[in-house]
Amino acid sequence: MANTESQAVANLIYQTYNDNYSISTDNNSIHNILSDIYKDLDKQHNEITEEDIETLHQIMDVDGDGVISMQDLESLCQKYLEDYEQFQDNFQFQSPPAGPQVKEFLSVDNSQILNQSQAKPRYNQRTKKRLEICQRLFHKYQKFGYVTEKELQGLLFETYQQMGMEFHLTQNDIYSWMKMADKDNDGRMSITDFQDTILDGFIQGGINIYE
Known about the structure:
Elements: H1 3-17, H2 29-40, H3 50-60, H4 70-80, H5 84-90, H6 99-106, H7 111-119, H8 125-141, H9 149-162, H10 171-181, H11 191-204
């Protein structure tokens, strides 16, 4: 499957199931995915357990950071939807529920991905909450998937405010922060750059981010 096609499918899944700009065990998004899968399997909704939700979360959380991002969904689609023409015959691009289609790409053997994610350090609950704040606010300020120095001040101020942390920003702070986050020096910062730089700051400040 071409990269742009896998991105399109990942975006559809994300738009269908995201709840408050995130897919996680802390809202209904994972439960809704399982509900649609179970509907197709003729299983009752009350059969969904916390273990079911956690297992699916681990499968979809490809990089094992505790947060299901667009990058995670794109990786899954790229891996399991190689035969795009066959997938397109079965996948109708329409409103939810999309249970049979989601079930199709999750019904393959995911043991390798699951083992890989379990082998990585897991973020603790506080870090997961903070990453969800980052994700939600980044979507608020981003333009075409990126944030520039112009939007960064408002993004940082609101992010640290919602995390309950005092952070007094000067123009030099904004410039330095952007320089750290913008790894390829193109004047733009992606959601991954933003989250990684936030986490690096926590680590340097002696804050434990792992379980």
